Protein 1
Amino acid sequence: VDAALIAVGSELLRPGARDTNAEWLTGRLESLGARVRWRALVDDSTERIAVVTEALFGRSDLLILTGGLGPTEDDRTRPALAQALGVPSVRDPERLERLLRYFRDHGRVPSGSQARQADRPRGSEWLENPVGSAPGIAFESGSRLLFALPGVPAEMRAMFDESIAPRLRARAADPPARRTLRVAGRTESAVDEMLRDLYQQEGVEVTILAKPTGIELLLAASGGGAAEASSRLALLEERMSGRLGADLFGKDDDSLASVVGALLVARGETVATAESCTAGLLAAALTEVPGASAWYRGGLVVYSDDLKRSLAGVSEETLAAHGAVSAPVALELAAGARSRCAADHGVGVTGIAGPSGGTDAKPVGLVHMAVASPGVEREARFVFRGDRDLIRARAASAALDLLRRGLRGA
Amino acid sequence: VDAALIAVGSELLRPGARDTNAEWLTGRLESLGARVRWRALVDDSTERIAVVTEALFGRSDLLILTGGLGPTEDDRTRPALAQALGVPSVRDPERLERLLRYFRDHGRVPSGSQARQADRPRGSEWLENPVGSAPGIAFESGSRLLFALPGVPAEMRAMFDESIAPRLRARAADPPARRTLRVAGRTESAVDEMLRDLYQQEGVEVTILAKPTGIELLLAASGGGAAEASSRLALLEERMSGRLGADLFGKDDDSLASVVGALLVARGETVATAESCTAGLLAAALTEVPGASAWYRGGLVVYSDDLKRSLAGVSEETLAAHGAVSAPVALELAAGARSRCAADHGVGVTGIAGPSGGTDAKPVGLVHMAVASPGVEREARFVFRGDRDLIRARAASAALDLLRRGLRGA
């Protein structure tokens, strides 16, 4: 299945914008055996949306548009589709009634222009939106499929998974067998060097991605039927696992936080946090995992030195002797989190996120962290590169990884 | 100048890939007064490159292609351009001689396929490459310009700055005057309805974006010279400000947190947080602002009920009578943050982020929040839509906004 994507919205063409819908859809489509051959990003112009839709739809098995389905003046996907498909746009009275009811049920007053959302090209069908008010549009022409989805990521994703994925699955030949391996504590080039000889196999494709949360290895195996592809993938995964050892922290939808949570659940234990430079990021990352309340107790954000003392119990002497950004303070923060929050394990993080505050001895990016567990302490020191946001994100990930290694090794 | 960009290369369509050339070119073009209206990413297929080139070039003042100019079998931009422009591809003997000399001078042996790099569509000119071997291609048709550049970022950038930028500067009028207005506490369609009549002016362009952190209005004014565009923009901004009132929280690079920080700095005051469902997101958002330590004291993450009591001082009776997700608990969390962290203002947040834990009376998405300030308390209740991540992000933004309104009004 040759696929094409079109993202609609002037904002996507501004400097610094990212088409995150296409990033998500590309991965999802690959896992369903479809390959994105081309993509377009178009501003809110009916003419331009229609031109690219026409150019791409005629030469693709599948075209997905995202965005431009809202109720405002600059939502132009509906009229553009009608233009590209060469049919009139029609208003669906039943859909209009449903839209108005949706607004009443949610205690909102529909605007006059909400009625636009009941327009669709003649010959198309509606795609239900389980999350929001804007319905999507589906159109079939011979063996070719066209779908238009809202640009709001949560709505787009829900509609893809509920309405489009099943239709693709029904059509697909054997999709490639796929696995994502997730690695912490190593750089992209170190992972590449360690594993490179394993990539050079027929019928296997490996992509390495570096993210602030770690390295991702996207593995795909295809050819020779589903069973053969899947056993080739299993062998590749086994070889990579063997080389990566404890640095391989999970696969597919795992995150450092979900792996930490699973380890804590298995042990019937809990964790608490005390953060200075990451200031809540570590707590927020842990609690991204649904059900985190079973194993995450709570935490302290001790941005000022006096709170490091009063809330986390760091001693005046340690602060004076070593400074707030030091291994001893990280250790006392971890112990303080553990005791003040009555948890089995405590994590402490202290560092210099910048842009100012760095010195020669303690540069911007320096972060000390520690984990206090029953009868054992671990600590680590990093100098992270990047801007303030990236240093904080990398510090939170490294602290999760330090906790994970402790729970794993213990 | 309406611009279009095409990036050529199958690798750009893999999950996780980024078209960094387009990101760079978009910023460069805006600063030269050109606006990117559409973009495409195409794999290494002559047919597909030709189709998008033809669709975009006919309707743009300027089209820049990047990639596909190398010497290998899958470098297809040259034949695709000839196909799209409807002219034959011709080999330039003088350029071939220069290419071979370039390789000899750099001590490299040219491959047989290097000769391809001396091919260009009839009627086009060469663009010199000061950094590498692959020349670019320039084509003019009436007032429309087409350029094809190598995909290697260093070569692409050098060639743009040396050969394309001067030609655009010679043509360009004044770049548009731009401003971003940032709005909290209103939906996209409410803002659209309130302001729509102001968009319908000659020479003014308005884009509305909805993000978890609020609504963004991107304003641009152009035409009639820089001074006139800028005074038209100022008038538009003034009218919008008048209608938006306190919902307009900032402009351009402002964030809710940076505005809160500036208000606190102006008053010489500090703030602290006590979070349940947002679990550190509010603290992390406040401390994204460089220098936040001047006005952010710290916070408590009280995920479990017993920590709400022991760390934040919420009373057993309030918890028993109203439940953890209630206005009285939010108020006690705010007061607890204020007193335990010795801050002038305290913010408390408690809610149900889901996916489980909701009831009919207290559904997933219900969030209570409060701000405790000297002599005054404010509280608010929301039912946010979306998944766990979105509910938490929206709750953190709403809490920042509640704090901002309190600081502004006081």
Protein 2
Amino acid sequence: MPKKKAQLSDENKIIQLLQQRYTSASRLLEKGIGDDAAVIHPEQSREYWLITTDMLLENIDFRLDWTTPQHIGSKSIAVNLSDLAAMGARPRFYTVALALPGKISEHWIIEFYDGLNKVGNDHGAQLIGGDLSRSDQGIVISITAIGESLKRKVVYRSGGKAGDYLYVTGVLGRSAAGLKLLQSGKKNTRSRNRREALDAHHTPDPRCGTGLWLAQSGFVNCMMDLSDGLSMDLPRMCAASGVGAQVRTGDIPVFPESSQWGCDPLELALYGGEDYELLFAVPKSKNSLFLKTYPKDFPSITNIGELTGEKGKVWLIGQNKMRERLQEKGFDHFHQR
Amino acid sequence: MPKKKAQLSDENKIIQLLQQRYTSASRLLEKGIGDDAAVIHPEQSREYWLITTDMLLENIDFRLDWTTPQHIGSKSIAVNLSDLAAMGARPRFYTVALALPGKISEHWIIEFYDGLNKVGNDHGAQLIGGDLSRSDQGIVISITAIGESLKRKVVYRSGGKAGDYLYVTGVLGRSAAGLKLLQSGKKNTRSRNRREALDAHHTPDPRCGTGLWLAQSGFVNCMMDLSDGLSMDLPRMCAASGVGAQVRTGDIPVFPESSQWGCDPLELALYGGEDYELLFAVPKSKNSLFLKTYPKDFPSITNIGELTGEKGKVWLIGQNKMRERLQEKGFDHFHQR
């Protein structure tokens, strides 16, 4: 459930309202509204089943002149699989509802589905159905991904405790650096750094294997994926866990190469979004064993701070040890209103 | 998976292509692309789980000036629950991905979800998650509904045999008659007939209880819901079952009152769509027992013809016994291109 779009504070408010208004217990439901995915427990099933939905709209989430149909397909499924990764689930199936303007060619459609199918296959998820509509506006893509737990071990946003060490996988702000290139008209480049940033933006790699390992390991108290940037997502995890956090800005794994094209790497890491890395918390007592056990060939992980007892407050600690409150802001990619 | 929108023949072609290109066996999957819902079999689960997705777009599927947010909500979930009804599944959960223009009020959003929740509750389905986006164009609603079988008895489109009697529930062409009223600017009326047509259009009642009973009864070889009109949907059932059909036009349960406002009731029944009634086939040998057993207080059912061995051919038999081929056509509700 990435929340990278505009009206972000409104959106949090609406979700809260839906949660209050429509949540009810059911023997078949482990977890409803309010996490990366819902968790169902089919009767007598060995495993939980997880469901997540994401919608992507032309000119809000992608632009046809900046990308290819394969990339749109692969990104559409990747953002959904990332939600399953964030709970530690194994991707299994997905459905695609697609609305297309009349001018879209059959070739475009096939390339789009090939992009979907490639990334789905890579992570074990199979297309099982959907809907096709005509759009008199832009392209709309809505995907629902379905995953299976392993031994019913899933990780929620809500298990974090004060004192837990806060980790992220990979590098933050790289996708946003790629977007900056696109915004300045540089969609083709031979530079390795620029290529890397563009790739991160076009074809994010959902951390399914890592999320599964983390959930199985038993070291992780809470987890989510970073879709809207640390500044938007970390407060959500804190709210769900009833804790606060402090983050050492100097320890955030930024993408320093983006300064070559005029970006502030720290700003992109905090506010850029669309990295689809994992954010998770490990109890201090398990930390050294966790670090010893974490597989060497997995994505890098970085301890960026810790959870605190100051409920709802997220602080940034600068290199001069100065504290400042983290501002919750994302940016709307195509319409700086 | 209603197919009521434009480019209908293209759409059948694309779905066929997806089916050929991306279908692969999985031990957890009973049925993938090509029916009203996909059917999953979680390991050791007592039941199958069914998944279906439908997208509704402003000015394609609904118009804000013709309807209320509650009606949009209730129709959005109803069309999905109808797909579950068509397989005989019990609705359990649903997710909602929603894209909204900035001008939509919080009040509108709450009324919309109240409409969803009312119909969901009526049929035992609970909201468990979703996505909220900004749209820079119209409203987009994409719902995924999840149902559970009872004793693993689900009915596919594909089990029909030559000689089976063809049945429909309820009345056909009533929703389209309501749409005609809206198109001619008559959204308020005191006439009972007109009210009934408008209600059928705004708040279709998915046949969940009937679908479940039919699947449990063991009398039904194949079933689907009528979302695009008999002329579009019956050929799909015939294609899936590898049979043909003949329909006695005089026996189709039309909505004759629509002639009062200039409609041709038969034409609306064949080509109008959005009735969300069930179409199903009963073997001749079981027919009399079926008719005796079918509950008296359930929606009316009507035998409208039979399946034949003439694969892919659907004939209409007029009251003068003349045969003519049924033309596959739907209509695009808001844009007669």
